[in-house]
Every structure is written in structure tokens, then in C-alpha cells.
Amino acid sequence: MLPKSLAFVDIETTGSSPFADRAIEVGIVRVDEGRVREFSTLLDPGIPVSPFIQDLTGIDGRELEDAPSFYEVKDEIASLIDGALFVAHNARFDFGFLKHEFKRYDMSFSPKQLCTVKLSRRLFPQYRKHDLSSIIERFQFECAARHRALGDAKVLWDFYNLVLKEHSSDIIKSTIEELTRKPSLPPRLAKKYLESLPEAPGVYAFYDKGNTPLYIGKSVNVRERIMSHFANDYTSARQLEMVSLIEHIEVYPTAGDLFAQLLESEMIKSYQPLFNRQLRYARKVVVLKKVESEDGYFSCDAREVDSIDVADIDDILGIFRSKKQIKDFLSNIVQEHSLCQKYLGLEKTKGACFARHLGWCRGACTKDENPLFYNTRFTEAFSARRIKSWPFSGPVAISETFGDLTSTLIVDKWCVLKNIESKVSANFYEDVSEISGSDMYFDYDAYKILLRYMANHHHLIKPFSFSGSLSEYLT
Fold first, then answer.
1. pTM for the whole structure
2. CA 263/CA 268 separation, integer angstroms
3. How many CB atoms lie within 10 A of CB 246?
4. In a domain, 388, yes or no
5. Angle at CA 228, nearest 5°, toward 16 and 132?
6. Which residue range forms the structural domain that includes residue 39?
7. Are residues 337 and 469 in the same domain?
8. Are strands 405-412 and 415-421 parallel, antiparallel or unpaired?
9. CA angle at 359 for the pair 354 and 361, rounded to the nearest 5°
């Protein structure tokens, strides 16, 4: 049976964080078996509204000064949503904000949710975009007030009516049931672990009865990610096995996704959890270093190492997980860059290598090619695998903030020198100034995480010096 009561909800806010930002408008279309009620109100957020939000919504900050606070309308909003299926576009956002607004007054808020983004993707998979603007344009819905709460909520009601016309009730019913299905909780896990899960960035770890690490993961919303494990435990026998063994959960909050990624990587390598496949690596890696033969040709040497000296980075051609991975890589670049199998260490021979007989090698092994030409192609072949040059003149500070938690990384030459929280002692700068070259540990996984982060968040990276106030790096 299809839902009898639905509440189509949209809210406008001062920003994207339910912890730091507030709702400035709520719009609700409540539907009960054909009876439709509409509700809309502006809200005084008690904090400034940025020009960007004012331009986006058309809501003037001065209008909000005379608007009611959330406290004044909370009971009416709760009554309109009570007993109904909570329907919103990107429901996690709207639900999260309302949940935190109610939480400020010790009111529980936990309606069953239906996300119309997910509903659109399931029922209209032929389309690539499923944002609200695309849906409005695609189905030619009228929206007199885009980016206003009631206007957008009305569009969701129109979209639901379209779904009812385009699809059978059986398909709609099964899709809604699948999208709103409650998680199947692990049989060994006490409910107390789930009640305290934060809707915040962090790393989580599943443990069995013997305190053996089963799985370590990270998310910008730990609660949602953990619950998704339990909602999808039927998708594979391996996942089902893991869930059946979970005895308790540990959560490690972080100030943002970068810190979560770095902590997750370090914990997986340290604890080697049973069900982490892709990231479950030992600390040892195989380093391919550049060497030069007596006759001037570049060659390479593979060595398994526990750690990488920062001073050796310029001579490293690539970092690999195994010697087999190196062999596969070298075999691929022989023909692509006309390199010599002998100098790549793939073949031991006194004469011409096999690639020379095939016409791929241009004669380094028989001294028929100038070393300068060969070395140029050799360098080019490894350019994509080499560690990127440190793009700054010295150390940098990278800060992330979530709620009351602020953390800062001090990074130099891809090495994390310090990981500090805002509640740090005044001795911090003395501690940092005492760091020596021997303290700089290069971690390949951390390097890849930092490389991706810096490519997209260069505006958040600040030069770091060992003087001044710490507060300027935490704001």
C-alpha cells in the first residue's frame, strides 16, 4: 500500500552545516489521502545571513528580523510532519537541519524519510541529472518561487503526482519500501552503540567479540555511513558475515574529511582489519630508484623498504605495492617508449634484448643509441609515476573545522609534521621548531591523500612559520 500521509518539506538555511548554520525558512505541503495543507514561514536564525544566501533565495536579511524564531513555530512544524512520510529533495540535508533545530529544545525528531533525488534516480534512470532544477525543466513544472521553501516543496508534490501517473503502484510501493527500509542491525551489537553515533566527520572501527578489528572506514557523516553498512548487509555474503560478527563500534571524530582520510589510512595499516580489502596494506612498499650504468644509460633498481627517506625522493621513479606490479608496469612501457628490456632489468643478456629483435628497443643494449636520447625517453616514461615536487617554499598549515572541533596539519615535503587540535598548549611552536629531518616520515598513502586535497583546496592552505599566534592558523 502506498503511503497515506506525506509531508513534502523544503528548508532554506544560512549555510550547509546543521551545526553552525540555521534555518531561515520552512515550507511544508502535508497530504493526507487527498487533503492538502500548505505551511510556510520565515525564521529568525539569530545569526547573520550572507549576501550569497540572500541573492540565492531572494530573502532579505531585514525580513528575518521580524520573523518568528524556530522555538515559536516548532510545535506547529512537528505537528504537520507527525505521522507522515518525510519527503525532501536530498532529504539528508533538510532532515539534518530540522533534527538539529528540534534538538536544541530537547525534542526528538525521527520520521521515516524519502529522498526524491534517490526516487528520481530509481524511477527515471535514463536521465543523468536529478537535481531539482533539472527535474523542473525536464517535466515543465511551474515554480513561482525557486529556492524558496514552499515553492520547492510544491514541486516535490507535483513530482510525486507525476510518479503516480508514470509508474504502477506496485513499482512505486516497492521502490519506496526499498528506499525507506530500516537497517537490519547486527545481532551481537548493543543498541547503545548506535544511539551515540555522531552525524559528523570521523573514522569508525567495527570489532568482534575478541576485540579483533573487522573493518575501518571513514565518512563526513559517520552515523549515516555506519547505518548504510547494516542497510546493505544482504548485498554480499562477505558483508553479511562481517555484520554478523560486529560486537562493538569505536568512533574517532575528526574536524573534516582530510583528517578522516589520513586517520583511516594510518589505522588500516596499523590494525590490518579483516574485511578491508583495497587499503589493507603493510607498511612495506617496493621503491623503484633510478641508477646510471657505467656507459651512461639510465636503469632502475627495485628495493623493498619499511620507510622512505625524504632525501631520496628525487631519485625515486615510482612506488609500488609488489615486485609483480613493478614488472607489469615496466613491461608496458617497453613498447610505448621504445625502452630496453635489459636496462629495465626485465632481461639478463650479454647481447641485444628481445625488444631489440622486435624493433621496439632502439639499441641501448647494443650501444647503437645515444644515451642522451634514451635517457630522455626513460625520464618521460616514469614522469607520471614519480612523486610530485613539493609545490611550496616551506611548511604549510592546513586547517579543518567542524562544530567546536578545529584541527591543523603542519605539512612539509608531503610529510605530516604535526597534527594538532585547537586546544593546544602554548609550547606548540617550541615543539615544532625542534622537528629535525630525521622526524620527517614520508607515507605514500598520505602523499596521495594530500595531493588530491591540495588540488581542490589550495585556497585553504597557508604558509607556516615557527612564530606568531596559533590562532591565526585555526581561523
1. 0.64
2. 9
3. 23
4. no
5. 45
6. 5-180
7. no
8. antiparallel
9. 65
